[in-house]
Amino acid sequence: VDIAGGVAAETSGPDRLLFQVGRYALLAAGSAFAVPLFLGGGSGPVLPEWLWVLVKASLLVAALIVVGRRFPTVRPDKLVEIGWMVLVPLVLTQLLVVSMVVVGG
């Protein structure tokens, strides 16, 4: 059962440090992948490209940490409910509209 500290509640000392380092490494790696995929890579004025990638990845890591600490955790069943009740009808509507545009010309 996850209580106040979540899954890391039972860890302490070096184990907790390793857990935290792994968590932040995952955030950094995910942000490094997101920068070229979604944020335009090294595009930007004045600074060299490698510095833009570093700035964008750092801002993304900071934003993810702030959002992760600000908002409560969402239970998996609530995410599944949103997926089935909201996202699937939206996808089916989009599929219908695109099909009509492609077939109708």
Describe what you observe in this structure.
By secondary structure, the chain is mainly α. The chain has helices at 14-38, 49-70, 76-104. The mean pLDDT is 90. It has 2 domains: 1-73, no CATH class; 75-105. It contains 3 helices and no strands. 72% of the residues lie in helices and 0% in strands.
Throw out a few tags for this protein.
105 residues, flat, 0% strand, 3 helices, mainly alpha, 2 domains
Straight-line N-to-C gap: 56 Å
- How big is the Rg? 20 Å
**Tally of discrete structural domains:** 2
- Helix share bin: over 70%
Q: How many β-strands, per DSSP? A: 0
SS element count, helices: 3
Concise overview:
By secondary structure, the protein is mainly α. It folds into 2 domains: 1-73, no CATH class; 75-105. It contains 3 helices and no strands.
Q: Mind sketching the topology for me?
A:
Layout: H1 14-38, H2 49-70, H3 76-104
Helix pairs in contact: 1-2
